[in-house]
Give the backbone structure.
Amino acid sequence: MQIRRAGAEDAHAGVVFIMRQQVGALPIRWIGDEPCVLLVTSRETQRWIIPKGWRMRGRTNAEAAAQEALEEAGVRGRVRRKPIGRYFYEKRRPGGVEECRITAYLLEVGEELVDFPEAQERRRAWFTLPEAASVADDEGLRAILRDLEPQLSELRARKAARKSRKSATDAAKMPSAGTTDGGAPDPSRLLAADTGKSPAKRRARKAATRKTGTGKGRSAKAASGKLKAGKKERPARTDTTPSAPPASEAAE
């Protein structure tokens, strides 16, 4: 959206003011317990500002602000959808002065790149909140920075509370030792506790027995085979008792 202020002219140049909308990102991170913000320099005058630019078709304002942070400051992270604040600044151009309204979005930095599109055109630096408020060029931005610490403290407290709740929930879902997922006693674990041998160890021992042939059954069979091999074959027994003569020979 572009709004031309009818009749509002610059006193010394007769330049018509034009209101335009921009989006900006306020990159933050914690160094220890100290919240810090990342500022970049403007390309022409080297003033300390935040990454900002025009709104983008097909993207939300928060997404456009995150893209500006990537291009101008070389950082990626989680951008908050709710604006952290708004301020105005005047952008001078050859054809006039544009009065821009900046809507700033908080960006929690997760990655800081060495190479990024405007790395050769700008400088970047991390500042504590008091330092950033003292070096920032725009008064509206300085006011946002001065009021930022309570909001960041509240944000960090909410994140810590969510993390604590998640840890408690995960711990409650985990089964205790000797029970199944449903909370009932696990028979295999109870058996392992009674015998001192886990099912996995028993399976491994059985597999090793089958592979090496050192089991009790196989040892017994091997010993029986050795005993049979040691016996000598005994000759078949022959009957030497004379058989009775036929009846005719006996009569004679």
User: Anything to note?
Assistant: The first strand starts at residue 2 and ends at 9. Residues 71 and 117 are 5 Å apart (CA to CA). Residues 2-154 form a domain with the Nucleoside Triphosphate Pyrophosphohydrolase fold (CATH 3.90.79.10).
